[in-house]
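From the shared-data thread, chain only:
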Amino acid sequence: MGTVRELLAGASKPGDVEARHEAEILLGHALGRDRAWLFTHADSIADNDQAERFRALIDARQRGEPIAYLIGRRGFWTFDLDVTPDVLIPRPETELLVELALERIPNDHEFRVADLGTGSGAIALAIASERAQARVVATDASAAALAVATANARRLDIGNIEFAEGDWCAALDARPFDIIVSNPPYIAAADAHLGQGDLRHEPVSALASGADGLDAIRAIVQSAPSHLVPNGWLLFEHGYNQGERVRALLAQQGFEAVQSWLDISGNDRVSGGQRS
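Structure, as tokens:
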């Protein structure tokens, strides 16, 4: 047992703002309350089961398990997504890809959109939620990931989306798409970061892609033209230092209007082009 104040004080060192913030999220989860409730009920007492649940969550976090997996949720765009260790944890920088896609998708008529390697469904669901006339197909090679994405679509009541199992464009039907988007794996297989932080617990297949990290992007750039209408867009996320190389890949494949867009840190984060 213990009060909210006592449990939080015991879970982080004084002055450690990040640890305190994480402890508040985990305690709220253990109690079934939001963080605002914790601030106004600091003297409320957690029962033994709740206190033990909270301490188990703190222990797991100290072992490096990601907050998103511990509570089973991650905020993205305008909603919370269910996440499991079967899917990549959605990240704020990926919202740039959603914004760029929405700029190219009209509000007033049907538009065919494909999201390759959808994972939790973050990108596809964000687009589908903002463009009711869009018809979104989200693919993934992982059946477990598709189960998570499908459950998110059902819980969020987003109906203009369908899911297909397969590797990149292989799962798409014969009808061309107006825009294809993707957040593929783009970390080099030997990158030391894969053994650090949250990345240690995320699916390697959603993170790493070959010796230089570009194997998946090469496959997408090569296969996308046959699934795009003329002047259709391909947009994808990539690593901060890969902009020049992916623009070259797009140009070699005959894409036009090839360009990259910067993230909030000023690094190339999304690149794309139009099918000729």
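The chain has two domains: 2-63, 75-274.
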